[in-house]
């Protein structure tokens, strides 16, 4: 049986996605209005497993949503090999390989980058009717990254090349003069400095005049100029031509109704000859009074048990370990725990039973997967279940801490700090006593709350689950890749390649696709791709 690819309309605006990760930004843009507005021409990513995820998703998009072949679903369920999938659809796979490029920007010779982008855009690049999206790696901008890197790099920290990977953006802007761009990064970009100067000020200037910012580069369009637009909360601005307040470039996902408290810098640039319409259209997003909760998004996903690490793991051993944890809490902390917590612990212990699907896996067969939030976006009945839904293993001491945190969150309506933990549960770390005073990392065991948006999903979720404890004490575990992906608003048919640790990194580094779709919507209006809404 043959399947007809969706057949990209040449009227769709091509997207160039730099530092693409697993493709969250591109997914949101390509999904706008059923895929009729934008198409991904090329996405560039340096990490192998993230590139494999990009390539597979590009293959998926070669087909309309109603025409995705059954072999795709057989592959993601583990019933077909990647080689067999490639052989069955050679043309579509070749197109996916042309679109998703494994390359390290800043290392790859720019002449080759230019040639690959030219080839992907074809004749369209001459008109500059393109949108550039993406964001440079954030280690040099994030607060956590700076705290880790300064002691290691010392004086060299300020000159770390990762501060300036946005120059790869500038080269693409100055070479191809796209009609618009979207640059995303962590909020720490606003406070990061180099040589004693604010990096964000320099970035704004360079993005306005990318050709002039590249002293050692000879771009095709050295005089191209951009106007920058913030989409964050409206803040007072003067009419003196000064820059918008830096904080106005921060988008807070939960204020837009998304199920995650994720705060990121989003800079939208419009080429100067297209900026007049944009000035009337690109207004800050309106804050919403309500946002989706964790329960709204994770509803329908099969419950799982955690694994046991550094010991024999089995359903029976897990039940014994969690019941022993409950006994330990009830026996050793009876005087310290309030009665509601003791009652909840006793209730959990009495009802504890290994969930039907155990620890889950690459594919978990089930028919009930629908969330209460945006079900038409997430659910694909052709999957026949859930993908990337496998729990990780935890040490017995951490199981006890997770059980305590989940019960505490359910009873108290907040996540405990270390000061809330009984002394017998405090980890044997050198800085615990300092953390008990309320300093950094006092919330190192953070339970997600069922009736609120999640905290920010970051790549740290790949290290351990301590910041991402599931709110259900009967599961006593951290979030799975699929649960993190749902909170990041990836559709359920978006499959993440690689080992589980790499999958977590991909999800944590991504831009939420539904946030990207919101940005794509206002950009489409600003570029005249859709009629302007009446005021």
Keywords, separated by commas or semicolons:
alpha/beta, Rossmann fold, two-stranded antiparallel ribbon, 2 domains, 20 helices, 14 strands, 535 residues, 36% helix, eight-stranded mixed beta sheet, disordered N terminus
Any chance you could write out the topology, listing elements then pairs?
Elements: E1 13-18, H1 24-31, E2 38-45, H2 48-61, H3 70-76, H4 82-88, H5 90-99, E3 100-102, H6 110-121, E4 131-134, H7 143-153, H8 166-176, E5 180-186, E6 193-194, E7 197-198, H9 199-208, H10 210-213, E8 226-229, E9 250-252, E10 263-271, H11 275-281, H12 294-298, E11 307-308, H13 315-332, H14 339-351, E12 360-365, H15 375-378, E13 385-390, E14 393-394, H16 396-412, H17 432-435, H18 481-487, H19 500-509, H20 513-526
Parallel strand pairs: 1-2, 1-4, 2-3, 4-5, 11-14
Antiparallel strand pairs: 5-10, 6-7, 8-10, 9-10, 12-13
């Amino acid at each position: 049986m043959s399947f007809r690819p969706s057949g990209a309309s040449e009227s769709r605006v091509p997207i160039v996605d730099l530092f693409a990760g697993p493709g969250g930004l591109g997914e949101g843009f390509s999904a706008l209005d059923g895929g009729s507005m934008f198409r991904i021409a090329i996405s560039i990513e340096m990490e192998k497993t993230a590139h494999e995820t990009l390539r597979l998703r590009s293959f998926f998009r070669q087909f309309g949503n109603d025409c995705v072949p059954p072999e795709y679903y057989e592959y993601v369920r583990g019933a077909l090999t990647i080689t067999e999938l490639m052989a069955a659809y050679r043309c579509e796979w070749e197109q996916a390989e042309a679109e998703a490029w494994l390359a390290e920007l800043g290392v790859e010779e720019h002449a080759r980058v230019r040639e690959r982008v030219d080839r992907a855009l074809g004749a369209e690049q001459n008109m500059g009717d393109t949108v550039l999206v993406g964001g440079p790696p954030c280690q040099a901008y994030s607060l956590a990254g700076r705290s880790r890197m300064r002691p290691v790099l010392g004086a060299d920290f300020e000159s770390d090349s990762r501060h300036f990977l946005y120059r790869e953006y500038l080269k693409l802007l100055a070479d191809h003069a796209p009609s618009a761009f979207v640059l995303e990064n962590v909020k720490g970009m606003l406070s990061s400095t180099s040589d004693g100067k604010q990096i964000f000020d320099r970035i704004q200037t360079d993005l306005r005049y990318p050709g002039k910012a590249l002293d050692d580069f000879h771009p095709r369009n050295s005089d191209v100029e951009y106007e920058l637009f913030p989409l964050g909360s409206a803040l007072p601005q003067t009419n003196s031509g000064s820059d918008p307040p830096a904080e106005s470039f921060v988008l807070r996902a939960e204020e837009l109704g998304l199920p995650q408290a994720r705060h990121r810098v989003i800079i939208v640039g419009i080429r100067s000859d297209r900026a007049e319409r944009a000035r009337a259209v690109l207004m800050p997003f309106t804050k919403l009074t309500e946002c989706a909760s964790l329960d709204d998004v994770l509803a329908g996903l099969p419950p799982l048990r955690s694994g046991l690490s550094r010991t024999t793991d089995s359903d029976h051993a897990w039940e014994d370990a969690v019941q022993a944890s409950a006994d330990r809490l009830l026996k050793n902390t009876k005087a310290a725990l309030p009665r509601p917590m003791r009652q909840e612990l006793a209730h959990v212990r009495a009802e504890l039973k290994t969930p039907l699907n155990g620890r889950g896996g690459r594919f978990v067969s089930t028919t009930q997967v629908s969330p209460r939030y945006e079900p038409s976006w997430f659910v694909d009945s052709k999957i026949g279940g859930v993908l990337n839904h496998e729990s990780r293993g935890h040490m017995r001491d951490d199981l006890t801490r997770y059980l305590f945190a989940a019960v505490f969150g359910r009873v108290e309506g907040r996540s405990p700090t270390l000061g809330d933990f009984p002394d017998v549960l405090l980890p044997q770390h050198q800085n615990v006593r300092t953390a008990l005073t309320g300093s950094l990392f006092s919330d190192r065991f953070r339970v997600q709350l069922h009736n609120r948006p999640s905290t920010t999903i970051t790549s740290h979720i790949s290290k351990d689950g301590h910041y991402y404890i599931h709110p259900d004490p009967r599961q006593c575990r951290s979030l799975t890749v699929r649960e993190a992906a749902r909170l990041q608003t990836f559709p359920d048919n978006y499959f993440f390649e690689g080992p589980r640790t790499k999958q977590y990194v991909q999800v944590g580094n991504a831009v939420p696709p539904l946030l990207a779709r919101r940005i794509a919507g206002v950009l489409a209006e600003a570029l005249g791709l859709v009629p302007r809404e009446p005021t």
